[in-house]
Write a structure and sequence with these properties.
single chain, 712 residues, alpha+beta, Beta-galactosidase, Chain A, domain 5, TIM Barrel, Immunoglobulin-like, 3 domains, ten-stranded antiparallel β-sheet, eight-stranded parallel β-sheet, 40 strands, 19% helix, binds (2R,3S,4R,5S)-2-(hydroxymethyl)piperidine-3,4,5-triol
Length: 712
Amino acid sequence: MSTHPAFWRLDGASTTLLVVQDHAVPRLFWCGSKLNEQVEIDTLLVHSDSALAFGGLDGVTPLSLFPQASTAYTGSPALNAHRNGTQFAHNLTTSRVEQKDNSLTIELQDTNAGLNLVLCLTLDADSDVAKLTTTLTNTAQTALTVDWLASATLPMPSPYRECLTQHGRWGLENQTHRRSIAPGRIDISNLHGRTSHEHAPNLVCGTAGFGDDSGDVMFTHLAWSGNFSLRVERLSNGNISVQSGILFLPGECILQPGEQLETPAVVFTRGSGMNQCTQRFHRYIRSSVLPAWTRNLRPIHANSWEALYFDHNVSALQSLIDAAAGVGAERFVLDDGWFRHRRSDNAGLGDWFVDETIYPDGLHPIVEHVRRHGMQFGLWFEPEMINADSDLYRAHPEWVLQIDGVETPLARNQLVLDIARQDVSDYLFERITSLVHEYAIDYIKWDQNRDLVLAGDGSRARAAAQPRALYQLIQRILAVCPSLEIESCASGGARADLAILEHTGRVWASDNIDPIERARIQQGFLRFMPPEIMGAHVGHKSAHLTGRVTSLHTRAIVALQGQFGFELDARRLDPHDVITLQHYTQLYKNNRHWLAQSSYWQVSTFSKALISSGQVDESQDHALFSVVAIGNMHATRPGHLPLKGLDPHKRYSLTLESINVADLAPFNKIIPAWCENQVSTSGELLMKIGVPLPVMPPQSALLIGCHREFNQ
Ligand code: DGJ
């Protein structure tokens, strides 16, 4: 390829990407707000950061899209690979660059090392979100061991000084951590074998103090459901980069001659403040990732889990279905406990046959009961798992992921099936599709309740094969059950990433439905994922995971941030609660058509005790903003909440959509007028001055509605 400098340009609605080749491998020269002018290469090179101080290696080149030690790069290389301990050094150079519309294909080769590499960069013009994947081919005659192949190495603007990652545990997902980008490498390594509670594949980097609507920020996400590494590296030369990819177990990735490794995609966007990047991600995910059914009105779920756990019986379920229908449920989901031997979490996983001792007529009496209410029927599965106490394990102990001579630690008494085996996949395919067809199942809650550790085929590591085998199995099922909806659940939100979402389309964000904790979990989740795919259920008065007692209003307001549903025993609701819940159910039904297309805003509050966020419809005619008091406010006057995303020129009626003024009033000597009577004001004042808040006692919440007045 010619050594003449060249560049390629991808334009989005408000973003431009410029890829320049002035050295052996192209670099991302600009990723940011749209450039107005028609740039030329000579002009661009005026802006090349080519200055270099004395000291250090000679021949240092700017950070490329594929950094290698052969270009005197001393940070983390994009590739660590060798042939039985030799040929670990590579020098890939560009052999081809091709642009087609908004996609760029860059091919690199090292004929001596027997490597061919293809980088595919695409900018989605509508959302301004870019995607990069990398494919490596072993073109030599010997096996190549790949220890690390970055999906992407992205340069971060040099003023970036802070990054934000999300971590947690079971029942406390997506908790935000902010840290400095100091010299050295930050490495978020996930070895949980699934996307995990512990580390989300979400990363925000930005200028110091970046906020909801301030600062220069870059969002990146790795679309992968297994082990990964997210790296932020700051070198002494000032380079800051983000690199991410699959974290292979030792010897896990060996490419035989001619074999290829295609990495998961890295998805990224750069914007002004986090809300802008969040909104772009939501737009992109809606248009380019999610299955089409997510654009249908999202039904209200009623799930049996916290109502009955394993205590299934036909009449209890039928009365639960009646009660759930009475508060507005549109889909009933029969959770864990319906299959053979599953009377507790000790046994049964793998035996995907209806338990005849509990259901002598199969699930027909349940499904018919559900249909009589005009509801859809959903069923829980945990296909990747097996209990040692199961018929399946007794028949096929060899189907389990394990390493000979090392005992695999159990989690929830279960082991993991090697679903990359054809016989295992065939068994699961047959069981799931038979049940889907027999009962015309509308939806599957696809659960996954343990980390993969010591995942092997007896001797060799096999963790990285599992996510891809999972995607294939789901696709195979969907090919014969095309109208089936699938949810990604993994002990709550341990599998929420853009790879699984191509095949699923809804996430159970957490098992924690205590609204006070859930409000924070949801804020983390919604930073990257759109609200309508987030299962969010109203739980019992006393939350099962925390014991915290909260009002029904608070539980419902928090659940309204996602796909609304119930995770409670509706038979035990008193008549007053039924009426209250019916109000929120109706509120969800009235607004869900625009909520699923809305812009999502997180609102910084002046008090740490308040969490606020809202959704504004595309035409800026409607908005719902919630405020949740997670603690006690220090000030005696609560001040204003400036709203976001409204049209400053429109007039709105401002209403308290939550019907809890009577609960708030006793804490207010004087309560703002709008809480009691609908008032009228402008978008400009709502955003600049804000909504005067009432005094909110700890654990209360409120829902603010803004609806455009058309008779202005
Ligand atoms: C974990 C899920 O997150 C719960 O909602 C429930 O389905 C249980 N598994 C059932 O075992």
